[in-house]
Design a protein that fits this description.
7-stranded mixed β-sheet; alpha/beta; 11 strands
Length: about 700
């Protein structure tokens, strides 16, 4: 019979903790939230041995046991609160062997909490390349806990790590003495706090003394008791914390001297340092960044062209076949013009979504994404932010929801709020189907200088426009929101590594599946609703249209197909959807939009990509089932009442800029409300982005019309 217990993975950011989590749990993972907070809770199940299965919790990365952000606060409370449901039976501290001194500070703090600990030494290959040799047996002896070298990328050390976990499970270790001894720890009030809060470690009692007012699990009565004890003892938090860090580093220096051998300080720079001389150069670094972005957006069109064509052709063939197999009538119309048209309109963009996520994964895996944060820090500071805001903004190119959640790592409240409010201006993957369809509709597929794809350049321009507008808005908010709090951007750059192509492939497939599943649900629901609204209308109006064209058929039976198409178009205009579109047409006419675009603007508030499905449904309902034209061809042929094309260059560019700036996403507004704990900021966000979108679209239409 298998037994089970809980293991927590902790460590500094970029220490290899997530790689170890993935190696231990494989696909047995799930993401939720820690109770009472919005921080992600990443958990998994790992089979340690035949008799032991463990729940693995991947806690947010932190540099020390003194929290400075929401993520670090979660790690802090999970490790200190004995009543927490996530309280681990064992803690694995992932320590970067190439930066051992700094990592051992956090290790020693965790050890003094008196929970069984294993140190997993990662980045051993990088330490070797830096000329660092570590005596792991000596380190284990001096630290008093198991020390296991691991390389999760190559599955090295995992067997030994599992064996060590099983040994600690079967034979719990004898409690080790404190790593350091502070005079304050021997005072009686620390022991009293230890008893009040049911802690098994005096060091944990010290942390409660330092932070009891902000710890959720300390009740009001205990807070009063602790405050009274500290008031009597002249407790000085800053002094004790400073003394603790100094004493820890003194002992760590002794450990390093005995267990670590480093080559001469004049040792050669590792490859990462050499590459950084170019990639982080103020001029060449920014130039290379623009080239990288250019290649990404060119690739989105170039690599996705054939799979997109195949997908579009497959849906067109399926629609034509289904239309021929089923008898004419409501069911035929519903399946072909409602469900299939809506899904097909979005499915053709799945290859582009997968390629975008694949390229972003390559940047992250290789270590270049962190350099982008460092490189753009100076630009961000001109807008009142810093390099920490870059990661949420870059993540916003994939999806604004997790990007906004990633802003939790920003310590300064003002900078965090501004980042949350401007992140949706970054062009996310949901905008990509809209961009691609409209660019393909109004921008010719020409090559500049015989090499550069004009459509790819326009796409890159939209992404840069979103980033530029985010900086402008951030600057304005920085001026309006006053605060005296200052922050500094400190970041450890990971070494460059070859991307894990298996990881890239899995990410692409997973993101494609998520896009189809999540967007597919919305598309099907809205397609059904929209089909019904487009197929039916007030009986009096619909009957009048039918009588009008029935009379024309009697007079001109030879023009049967033309008359039927005209009747379908007029019935669409008089349907419930048509009435809704015509109602808002006066407001959007200055932007060059007609009533069909108006309907799409309303439905795409649920999710931007719904714009494509809506247009696919509207142009299918208004036409013949036998029509084999693609959606792009149908939209290109669309005419206004005066015979002029609906989708001119001016209209297309206006729509592109509208969707670049508009807040067309209910999920984003919901997550902003959850992160800020107020409806005020989502309302402000929706309003300012709506104004920007309308004014930008109007200017674009006037300039190019």
């Amino acid at each position: 019979m298998q037994r089970q217990y809980t293991i927590a993975l902790v460590g500094n950011p970029n220490s290899g903790k997530s790689s170890l989590f993935n190696a231990l749990t494989g696909l047995n993972q799930k993401v939720g939230n820690f109770p009472g907070v919005t921080v992600d809770k990443k958990t998994g199940v790992s089979k340690i041995s035949e008799i032991l299965t463990a729940d693995i919790i991947d806690l947010p990365g932190t540099y020390s046991l003194y929290p400075k952000s929401a993520d670090e606060q979660v790690t802090y409370e999970v490790l200190l609160n004995h009543e927490n449901e996530n309280r681990p039976d064992l803690i694995i501290v992932v320590a970067d062997a190439a930066n051992l001194k700094r990592n051992l500070l956090f290790c020693s703090q965790i050890m003094d909490l008196k929970t069984p600990v294993i140190i997993a030494l990662s980045m051993m290959d990088i330490a070797t390349s830096k000329g660092i040799t570590i005596d792991t047996a000596g380190l284990q002896r001096m630290m008093g806990v198991p020390v296991i070298p691991v390389n999760p990328r190559k599955s090295k050390g995992l067997t030994q790590l599992r064996k060590s976990i099983e040994d600690l499970y079967n034979t719990p270790p004898i409690t080790q003495p404190d790593f350091i001894s502070l005079p304050a720890l021997s005072q009686s009030y620390m022991h009293e706090i230890k008893n009040i809060c049911h802690q098994n470690s005096t060091y944990a009692a010290l942390h409660i003394a330092c932070n009891y007012a902000g710890l959720q699990y300390i009740n009001a009565a205990n807070r009063i008791q602790i405050a009274a004890l500290l008031g009597e003892s002249d407790f000085q938090k800053s002094k004790i914390q400073a003394e603790e860090i100094i004493l820890r580093y003194k002992k760590i220096d002794t450990v390093i001297q005995k267990c670590v051998v480093t080559d001469s300080p004049l040792k050669k720079m590792i490859i990462s340092d050499r590459i950084d001389k170019t990639l982080l150069h103020p001029i060449w670094g920014n130039a290379i960044l623009l080239i990288v972005l250019f290649i990404i957006f060119q690739s989105i069109f170039w690599l996705a062209q054939y799979p997109m064509d195949w997908t579009e052709q497959a849906f067109a063939t399926a629609g034509q076949w289904l239309s021929g197999v089923l008898p004419a009538g409501m069911v035929n119309d519903f399946l072909v013009n409602g469900i299939l048209a809506g899904l097909g309109g979005v499915a053709i963009f799945v290859p582009q979504i997968m390629i975008l996520f694949g390229l972003i994964t390559i940047l992250e895996d290789s270590g270049y994404m962190a350099r982008i944060s460092f490189l753009t820090d100076r630009i961000m500071r001109t807008a009142g932010l810093n390099g920490r805001s870059v990661m949420p903004l870059i993540s916003g190119m994939a999806c604004a929801v997790p990007a906004i959640m990633a802003a939790r790592t920003i310590q300064n409240r003002k900078e965090r709020l501004i980042t949350i409010l401007v992140t949706p201006l970054m062009s996310c993957s949901a905008r990509l189907p809209v961009y691609t369809m409209l660019i393909g509709l109004v921008i010719p597929d020409h090559k500049l200088l015989g090499i550069f794809n004009l459509q790819g350049l326009v796409l890159m321009g939209l992404y840069l426009a979103g980033f530029a507008m985010a900086l402008i808005v951030a600057w304005a908010m920085d001026v309006l929101l006053k605060t005296k709090e200052r922050t500094f951007f400190l970041m450890e750059l990971p070494v460059y590594r070859a991307p894990r192509w298996k990881n890239v492939g899995i990410t692409m497939l997973e993101k494609g599946k998520i896009f189809i599943r999540d967007v597919g649900k919305v598309i099907i629901i809205l397609s059904v609703i929209l089909w019904a609204m487009a197929a039916y209308g007030p009986p009096s109006r619909m009957e009048a249209v039918e009588h009008k064209y029935a009379a024309q058929l009697l007079v001109h039976p030879e023009n049967k197909e033309t008359i039927k198409n005209e009747m379908a178009t007029e019935k669409l205009e008089n349907s419930f959807a048509g009435i809704m579109g015509h109602a808002i047409e006066p407001a959007i006419r200055p932007l060059g939009y007609d009533w069909k675009i108006g309907i799409a603007l309303i439905t795409s508030f649920a999710a931007r990509e719904v714009f494509v499905g809506t247009m696919a449904t509207l142009y299918s309902v208004g036409g013949s089932n036998a029509d084999t034209k693609t959606l792009t061809e149908k939209m290109r042929d669309a005419k206004r009442g005066d015979g002029t094309p609906v989708y001119t260059l001016a209209t297309g560019l206006s729509l592109l800029l509208f969707y670049a700036f508009a807040m067309q996403c209910m999920s984003t507004l919901a997550i902003v409300k959850r992160e800020t704990r107020s409806w005020k900021y989502p309302i402000i966000q929706f309003a300012y982005m709506g104004v920007l979108a309308y004014l930008g679209a109007w200017v674009m239409y006037v300039v190019f019309n």
